[in-house]
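Q: Structure for this?
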Amino acid sequence: MKVLVVDDFSTMRRIVKNLLRDLGFTNISEADDGSTALPMLQGGDFDFVVTDWNMPGMQGIDLLKAIRADASLSHIPVLLITAEAKKEQIVMAAQAGVNGYIVKPFTAATLKTKLDKIFARLA
Amino acid sequence: MTIAMTGQISLEQAKSVVEFLESGQQAAADAIIAEIQNPINSELFAEIGKLTRQLHDSLTNFQLDSRLSDLATADIPDAKERLNYVITMTEDAANKTMDAVEAIFPVVDTLAEQVAAVNPSWTKLMNNDLDLKEFKSLCLDIDTLLKNTGKETQHIHSLMTDVLMAQDFQDLTGQVIRKVIELVREVEESLINMLTAFGISAEKVQGKTTPKVGENLVEGPIVNTENRDDVVEDQDDVDDLLSSLGF
C-alpha cells in the first residue's frame, strides 16, 4: 500500500512515518504541503493520504477538497492529523469527506485504531 | 477659539488714536491700542494656555511610552531571533531523539529475531528432546546470542543516553520563552498605556475578544481548551462529535 504523508514539519512527518512503518506500511512518500502533495497524488498510484491541516501554501482541508473533487483521486481515503480543534473545523472536515480525524497531540494507539477503522470500512 | 472680530473698537477710540498719532503722541496711541487688544489677548492666552497644557500632557504620555520605540526597534527583533532559536533547538532535539530511536529499532528487532531463532531448539532442550548434534548447534547459537546481546545492549544504552541528552533543549528554550513572555507583557502594558493616553478605556481594550483566525478558521494548537466551548478537548471529543454526525 502506497501512502503519502503531508506535513510542513519534517519532524512530524518522521514521527508519522515511523508509526506507519511499525503498523506495516513500508511504501511511504512525503510532501510538505497540499500544493506539493496534489501533483504527487495525480502522478502516482497512492492508496492512502495522511495530512496535517495547517500548512503554508495549500492547507490540508483544501487538499482534501481537491482530492474529493478529482475523479481519479476521489476514492483515496484521507486521514487528518492536526492541532486544529474547533468543532466547526471538525464538522467542515467531515462534510468535505474526511475518513478520519486525529487531533494532536496523539498516540500510536490512536493512529492504529483510526487506521483499522478506516480500512475496515473500506473492506 | 472664537474671538469676535467686530465691535472691539469704538469710533472714539479710533479717533483718539488718529489724534494722538497726528499730534505725535506715540505712547498714548499705543496705550489705546493695548487697551483695545486686552480682551482679545486674554482670551487668546487662555486658549493657548489650554493647548499648551494638552500638548504637555500628550508629550508626557508619549515619553512614558518612549520604551515603545526601544521595544519596536530592539526588543522585538531580538525576540524574533530568540523564538527562531527555540524552533531550531526543538527541531534539533526531535531529530536527535528520532535518530537514536530509529537506530535502536533495528537493534532490538535483530535481538528479537535471534531469540526467536534459538527458541525452538531451546524448548526441545527443556523437554529433553534435543539430540547431541542439535545441542552443539544450540550452544553455538546461544553463544552468538549472548555475545550479540552484550554488545547490543551497550549500544542501546549509549543511544538511550543520546535520547536523554537531547532533552537539554527544554531548559534553554524554557528560559528563552520566559524572556519573550516578559517582553509580550511589557508590550501589552505599553500599548494599553498608549490607548489610555488617547482616551480609550483600558477596560474596554482588555475586554473579551477571541484571537484572530486564519483561512478555514485555522488557529493552531488551542492551549486553553477548558475556557472555550467552541473547541474539542481531546480525541474522545472528536470521536463523539464525528459519531454524532453519523461517522
